[in-house]
Amino acid sequence: MIAELDGSSHPVVALLTDLPALQLRRGDVGTIVHIYGSSHRYEVEFINRTDFY
């Protein structure tokens, strides 16, 4: 669902699919701010010109 764009401690990622329920579209860029254990669940912050998600 996301593709890593860099190797930093807070990786920048881009969506590979639309998430209309969250008003996010393929290509939107966000930053991983937390990784939950080894279960491949991430907390990602997305930003656009008017909102934080």
From the structure above, extract its key features:
53 residues, mainly beta, 4 strands
Tell me about this structure.
This protein is globular. It has a four-stranded antiparallel sheet with strand order 1-2-3-4, with no helix packed on it. Strand 3 and strand 4 form a beta hairpin. Helix content is 0%, strand content 40%. The chain starts with a strand and ends in a 7-residue tail after the last strand. With 53 residues, the protein is an all-beta fold.
Q: Per the principal axes of the C-alpha atoms, what is the gross shape? A: globular
Share of helix among residues? under 10%
Q: Biggest β-sheet, characterized?
A: 4 strands, antiparallel
Give the low-confidence spans: none
End-to-end Cα distance, whole Å, is 16 Å
The radius of gyration is 11 Å
What would you say about this model in short?
This protein is mainly beta and 53 residues long.
Q: Topology, pairings included?
A:
Layout: E1 2-4, E2 12-15, E3 29-36, E4 41-46
Antiparallel strand pairs: 1-2, 2-3, 3-4
